[in-house]
From TrEMBL, chain A:
Cited NCBIfam families: PRK07937.1 (NF005924)
Single annotated GO MF: acyltransferase activity, transferring groups other than amino-acyl groups
InterPro entries to which the protein is assigned, alphabetical: Thiolase, Thiolase-like
Name the record gives this protein: Acetyl-CoA acetyltransferase
Statement: the UniProt record of this protein carries the keyword RNA-binding: no
Keywords for the protein's UniProt record, in alphabetical order: Transferase
Automatic annotation (TrEMBL), chain B:
Domain of life: Bacteria
Residue stretches making up the ChsH2 rubredoxin-like zinc ribbon domain: 189-219
Domain ChsH2 C-terminal OB-fold: residue ranges: 68-130, 224-289
Lineage per the UniProt record: Bacteria, Bacillati, Actinomycetota, Actinomycetes, Propionibacteriales
InterPro entries linked: ChsH2_C, ChsH2_Znr, NA-bd_OB-fold, Thioester_dehydratase-like
Descriptive protein name: DNA-binding protein
Matching Pfam families: OB_ChsH2_C, zf-ChsH2
TrEMBL record, chain C:
TM regions (residue ranges): none
Lineage: Bacteria, Bacillati, Actinomycetota, Actinomycetes, Propionibacteriales
Domain Gcp-like, residue spans: 36-125
Stored InterPro entries: Gcp-like_dom, Thiolase, Thiolase-like, Thiolase_C_2
Keyword Transferase: yes
Name under which the protein is recorded: Acetyl-CoA C-acetyltransferase
Organism: Nocardioides daedukensis
Length: 350, 321, 391
């Protein structure tokens, strides 16, 4: 395997983006930041890969215009996944592993606020037996949370602890759309929303975009003084049907974690859009109390669809670049109730 | 539409279609069962009994062929309150979604509960309240209700015995579409009877409508350029085909018009001339609607019509094809 | 770590499956449609689901079926539960891009046996509707894909001086080829150049019979590593893959002979060690949804000089018995399940290289090219597969 590292990361997150869902306006400065960070120009990028969804924008081929942000003449080696850009990063990592290219720029974007996000996501369910009931994302998460509460796998206090830590850490994240720590008692005193969930148990609707540059071997060392070298990268999927798995578990997260090798990570950026889902992920990934979780504030404080997973990897890489940790993990999830999971483990100097 | 004080123009967009879904043999059993007032589950290779039946067995990957009736009553395994229902959900007032383990099944089933919030509890026994009319769809179950309030399904009308092979699923979504700042400037200029473009600071090409990034150089276009209302037809198509949502009656000519001063052609209609007379290289001018009808839209320009000038030489526009 | 280029593992297509493509496959669900292709591909490869490491799914816009990321709900039916699954979407080229991504899973050395499937169940909605959701402030002038491409076909005719019957010749050829392919959607034995010319002019200069149908269908491939491929009969070895993209519109962008297509082809031939594509490639499956794109892509792919692609068509060179047989399967003009159409081109190229194309097999194929494009002629995906291991 080739040694591949994250050498640049840039992001934008906001409550409501007042602009076109093509996001060209956000992507252009993100790419400029990455060129600045790495010293690369557009011509140094061997492969471009993006992640987005037509249903966020409400129109077919919504990713096509985003190519304008690249400046794609001469033409570029480019691909797109209808997934969170964390999976676009996986595709780019594979492409580098083939030896065909040495560098890749990966980006994700989405304007969740253009529609009613929790309703739109009901289109991710079984189109025959579920979508016609329009079960929204928050309701499904509530069903999952109560299963765990009833089984004694977690309690309200544990959920509030996740929210409290996230909101407190988000105070140091300029991109977080929600922040402000208080106390467990304060959070538990707030009203139930989608019983058993309170609003702070649910990720806020967020617009945004993010981008990462990957580079191999010497190209990585040239681009960054502190590359975050990828030592393990894997993803996996569970069945969607609610009767097909124990919803208090996420076997695909465990499988991805095991394949990526999570032992010894000091920081884990977990993509958990609901507080109890962080508890599930910590269990599945076997992360002990000594692992620092979501110093960025995580998805409970900003969750831009289709880039939030990539941002977790970017934040985990940034923790290495800043010298906060020597070995970190970025995780992304997709689909209802932690159906699909990806784990990217990175290390500093090797 | 928003006022001109905001940074970008936006407008609502409705995306709606009634999808016709063929359901195949396995889901056909399930939907036929609902139509007949029964809950048909699949018995899988590992002995589990699952409702709705999966189309393919997760262990053997073979199509599921063993069907068994379950319910009609069961036990609530989990519920969640829906304080603000969204369109399409079973109720437009607050209600609960639930996972219900039907008697005889080994895995839960998702549906709505019509139970007052203060009576909801895990472990409660519930049964089906059937819809007044059943067509073979998941909404044939109106909701689950406390077991003692459930009722037997009404008998079907005569003659409805064919297996269910398809369902119709309406998908109606509402979005707010926003134009980029550059596009917004373009649409606002149209409201003033002007056509504007922007020049790329790197390649100096003039784009109309202006773009958030020059697609060649990936940098924002900057200098605004006011464009002529005349131009050259580079290429075109005569549309003879009607289509869903079409606003113009065929046949009509849709053409790329290279406005004088622009470096990219602009798509619009050519009218005021027989379609067979339209030519590549034809010189045309914009025909505007009456000023009182103008808005922030390309539709302010009704169409383009020939100016009567001699055709442009092929060499003057061939690089725009 | 070694230098660029030393890492790529050999990969081969060892299983091919497709559905019978029809206007409406009312007998199956989306999962059933995919499984029809997948089961055939696995049987062809002699593998079971349990032997597959990863799944790659391709499909065109989700609005076609009204399901957001349908691979999520399909995961179990596709045998993907407990495995890695990727979903590719690169507009009309997606079937080809999906096959290339699946190949890269193996070429990277990360996975050994990858199942890839692409599908479209167009009868669930209406493609023209899904592609024409109105944009505020803009006037809808186009009329679907035909309306989009017709002006560029007119430009080609003007630039090349091609006689107007060339499009009809392509359509008649591909429809006759489709009669040899039991999976093809259109089976019209009476189609002739004259009947195509007599069909209604829809998007002048494109006639009804010069357009592709709207189909339900799926295509699946099993792509494996060298060790697995060496143990099966007639694998189609992947010699080269290429993807290139450019923007939809730009000042002076060549929409007739796009640079992205030319660049992709040049890179493809370089990888495969091909210097004379016309003589070194034995069969071509190119993405021709409107008949005139055959001569246009013949030029774009370097089989003919610019402006002279139509001469190959007119001279019968692209017929099944010609020197460069193109679309012996009947092509997109005979079957068009959009998301799968690109993968079908890649699959048919593999069938030709394996000598398994049945009645539409070209004798003695050693190397075949599969091609797909999408968007406004801006996304290109192509591969070359061969009967022999790459040199």
């Amino acid at each position: 395997m080739r040694n591949v590292a994250v050498v640049g990361f840039a992001q934008r997150q906001m409550k409501e983006f007042d602009g076109s869902p093509t996001m060209v306006e956000l992507l252009v400065p993100l790419f400029a930041e990455l060129y600045e960070q790495t010293g690369f120009t557009r011509k140094d990028i061997g492969f471009w890969c993006s992640g987005s969804s037509d249903y966020l924008a409400g129109r077919s081929f919504s990713f096509v215009s985003a190519v304008d942000a690249i400046g794609a003449l001469p033409p570029v080696n480019e691909s797109h996944v209808e997934m969170d850009a964390a999976w676009a990063l996986y595709e780019a990592w594979l492409k580098i592993q083939t030896g065909e290219i040495d560098t890749a720029l990966v980006y994700g974007f989405g304007k969740s606020s253009a529609g009613t996000l929790r309703r739109t996501l009901a289109l991710q369910l079984d189109p025959y037996t579920m979508t016609p009931l329009w079960p929204d994302t928050v309701s499904l998460a509530g069903l999952q949370a109560r299963l765990g509460l009833e089984a004694g796998l977690w309690d309200e206090k544990a959920m509030a602890e996740v929210a409290l830590r996230s909101l407190s850490d988000a105070e140091r994240n300029e991109y977080a759309v929600r922040s402000g720590g208080s106390s467990i008692d304060d959070l538990l005193a707030r009203p139930l929303y989608a019983d058993p969930l309170r609003k702070h148990d649910c990720a806020p609707v967020t617009d945004g975009a993010a981008a990462i540059i990957l580079a191999a071997d010497d190209r990585a060392s040239d681009a960054s003084e502190t590359p975050a070298w990828i030592t393990g990268f894997a993803h996996n999927i569970d069945p969607l049907h609610l009767g097909a798995r124990d919803l208090t578990r996420a076997p695909s997260a465990a499988a991805a974690g095991s394949a990526a090798g999570v032992e010894g990570v000091e920081v884990a950026e977990l993509h958990a859009p609901f507080s109890h889902q962080e508890l599930i992920l910590r269990e599945e990934l076997g992360l002990g109390a000594n692992v620092k979780i979501n110093p960025s504030g995580g998805a409970l404080t900003s969750n831009p669809m289709f880039s939030a997973g990539l941002i977790r990897i970017g934040e985990a890489a940034a923790a290495i670049s800043r010298g906060d940790a020597g070995r970190t993990l970025g995780h992304a999830t997709a689909g209802p109730l932690l159906q699909q999971n990806l784990v990217c483990v990175m290390e500093g100097a090797h | 539409m928003t006022t001109s004080e905001t940074r970008t123009l936006s407008a609502p967009v409705h995306v709606g279609f009634d999808y016709t879904r063929s359901v195949g043999p396995v889901l056909g059993e399930f939907f036929s069962g609902l139509r007949d007032g029964r809950l048909v589950a699949g018995r899988l290779a590992d002995g589990s009994v699952v409702l709705p039946p999966p189309e393919f067995d997760p262990t053997t990957h073979a199509q599921v062929t063993d069907f068994v009736d379950v319910g009609p009553a069961g036990t609530v395994q989990s519920w969640t309150w829906v304080p603000e229902p969204v369109p399409g959900q079973p109720f437009d007032h607050p209600f609960a979604f639930a996972l219900i383990l039907l008697d005889g099944a080994t895995a839960p089933f998702l549906h709505a509960l019509d139970v007052p919030r203060d009576q909801l509890e895990v472990g409660m026994r519930v049964g089906v309240r059937w819809a007044a009319e059943r067509t073979g769809s998941i909404t044939d179950i109106e909701a689950f209700v406390p077991e003692d309030a459930a009722s037997a399904p009404l008998a079907l009308a005569e003659g409805t015995v064919d297996p269910v092979t398809g369902i119709i699923t309406p998908v109606n979504l509402d979005y707010v579409y926003a134009a980029s700042p550059e596009e917004s400037a373009f649409f606002r200029a149209l409201e003033e009877g002007r056509i504007i473009g922007q020049r790329c600071p790197t390649c100096h090409k003039v784009y109309t409508p202006p773009r958030g990034a020059c697609p060649v150089d990936g940098v924002p276009t900057t200098d605004e350029v006011e464009l002529a209302h005349t131009g050259t037809v580079t290429t075109f198509c005569i549309v003879n085909v009607p289509f869903l949502g079409q606003k113009i009656t065929p046949p009509y000519v849709s053409a790329y018009v290279l406005l004088d001063g622009a470096d990219i052609a602009f798509l619009h209609l050519i009218l005021g001339v027989d379609a067979a007379e339209v030519r590549m290289g034809m010189r045309v001018r914009a025909v505007w609607r009456p000023e009182e009808e103008w808005g922030t839209t390309v539709e302010n320009i009704s169409h383009f019509e020939p100016t009567g000038e001699p055709d442009a030489e092929f060499d003057t526009y061939k690089q725009h094809l | 770590m070694g230098k660029q280029g030393n890492h790529k593992q050999l990969a081969a297509v060892i299983g091919v499956g497709q559905t019978h493509h029809r206007a409406k496959r009312e007998d199956v669900s989306m999962a059933g449609l995919c499984r029809e292709a997948i089961d055939r591909a696995l049987e062809d490869a002699g593998l079971t689901f349990d032997e597959i490491d990863a799944i790659v799914v391709g499909k065109a816009p989700d609005l076609f079926e009204g399901v957001m990321m349908p691979e999520l709900y399909l995961a179990e039916a596709l045998g993907a539960a407990g495995k890695p699954l990727l979903r590719v979407h690169t507009a009309g080229s997606v079937g080809g891009s999906t096959a290339i991504v699946a190949a890269s899973l193996v070429q990277s050395g990360v996975h050994k046996r990858v199942l890839t499937v692409a599908y479209e169940k167009q009868s669930e909605s209406n493609a023209m509707w899904a592609l024409s959701v109105p944009v505020p402030f803009i006037m809808p002038v186009h009329a679907g894909a035909g309306g989009y491409f017709a002006p560029h076909v007119r430009s080609y005719i003007r630039r090349s001086g091609a006689p107007t019957h060339i499009g009809a010749m392509v359509a008649a050829k591909d429809r006759q080829n489709a009669l040899k392919n039991p999976y093809a959607h259109l089976q019209n034995k009476d189609t002739t150049v004259e009947s195509v010319l007599a069909s209604q002019m829809l998007w002048d200069p494109i006639r009804y019979d010069e357009t592709c149908p709207s189909s339900d269908g799926a295509c699946a491939l099993v792509i494996s590593d060298e060790a697995t491929a060496s143990s099966v009969e007639n694998p189609a070895w992947i010699h080269a893959t290429a993807m290139r993209s450019e923007m939809t519109t730009a000042a002076e962008r060549d929409q007739v002979n796009p640079q992205a297509g030319r660049d992709a082809a040049a890179y493809l031939y370089k990888q495969a060690g091909i210097t004379d594509p016309f003589n070194e490639i034995d069969a071509v499956e190119m993405y021709v949804p409107f008949s005139w794109f055959e001569p246009m892509w013949l030029e774009n792919l370097g089989f003919a000089e610019e402006g002279s692609g139509w001469k190959l068509t007119e001279g019968g060179v692209t017929a099944m018995d010609g020197a460069l047989p193109v679309n012996c399967s009947g092509g997109v003009l005979s079957s068009n399940p959009i998301g799968a159409s690109g993968m079908l081109r890649f699959a048919e190229a593999a069938l030709q290289a394996r000598g398994r194309a049945g009645d539409h097999q070209v004798d003695g194929v050693r190397r075949a090219l599969g091609h797909a494009y999408g968007g406004g002629s801006q996304f290109f995906a192509m591969w070359i597969v061969g009967a022999d291991k790459p040199a």
